[in-house]
Specification:
Blueprint lengths: L2 E8 L2 E7 L5 H11 L6 E6 L2 E8 L2 E7 L6 H18 L12 H17 L2 H8 L3 H5 L2 E4 L16 H49 L6 H6 L1
Parallel strand pairs: 3-6
Antiparallel strand pairs: 1-2, 1-5, 3-4, 4-5
Helix pairs in contact: 2-3
Membrane topology: Single-pass type IV membrane protein
Family: Belongs to the synaptobrevin family.
Keywords: Coiled coil, Membrane, Protein transport, Transmembrane, Transmembrane helix, Transport
């Protein structure tokens, strides 16, 4: 599972967004934002192999898109964290802010949290500790066509090349990390061997010279 896109909006006004790949997500999400009822709280919409998850809190909508239909807990944990940080940072400013006025400052936060929930094994553990599992079980999951008007269509385009490149980069990064770990293990092993050899040489020399004071060797000199 990977979260590939996220935004914070007030109604249809997007205040900040971030994606780690290429696609027409802004076009699709603008359609979705216009369809989300003010009374909604949290929901997921499936589109082919991708899922749009959103949380509505007050007049603000926190939305993300993931590439898996089988994982809902982490996307909603991600959205909860984004809501927490955004509310703490901006408070009532978001109620009157113009479109993208927070983007320069907040998109790096979206990127940081996205990378954490995508790559850090601890993310799932944090979610479980916060007791968000039961909440997600009650989230309604529907096909995106249910929110579209008759005859209305949207086409989601995702650049899979970017995703493959990111996965390749991640694999390369993990390989380098493993290589460094193995190198340090070898260094530690050779240092341990060198230390043992030095101790053996010292012990043999000490025995030959009459003890730790080396008095036999000193008297010969």
């Amino acid at each position: 599972m990977a979260i590939v896109y996220a935004l914070v909006a007030r109604g249809k006004t997007v205040l900040s967004e971030y994606t780690n790949t290429s696609g027409n997500f802004p076009t699709v999400t603008r359609v979705l934002l216009a369809k989300i009822p003010p009374s909604a709280t949290r929901q997921s919409y499936i589109y082919d192999s991708h899922v749009f998850h959103y949380v509505v809190s007050g007049s603000l909508t926190y939305l993300c898109m993931s590439d898996s239909q089988n994982q809902h807990r982490l996307p909603f944990a991600f959205l909860s964290k984004v809501e927490e940080v955004f509310t703490s940072k901006y408070g009532s400013q978001a109620l009157t802010a113009i479109a993208f006025s927070m983007n320069e400052e907040f998109s790096p936060v979206l990127k940081k949290e996205m990378e954490f929930y995508n790559n850090n094994p601890e993310a799932d553990a944090v979610t479980k500790v916060k007791g968000q599992i039961e909440d997600v079980k009650n989230v309604m999951v529907e096909n995106i066509e249910k929110v579209l008007e008759r005859g209305e269509k949207i086409e989601l385009l995702v650049d899979k090349t970017d995703r493959l490149n990111q996965q390749a980069f991640k694999f390369e990064k993990q390989s380098k990390r493993l290589k460094n770990v193995m190198w340090w293990k070898k260094v530690k092993m050779w240092l341990a061997i060198a230390f043992i050899v030095a101790v053996i040489i010292f012990a043999i020399t000490a025995m030959a010279c009459g003890g730790l004071t080396f008095h036999n060797c000193k008297s010969n000199n």
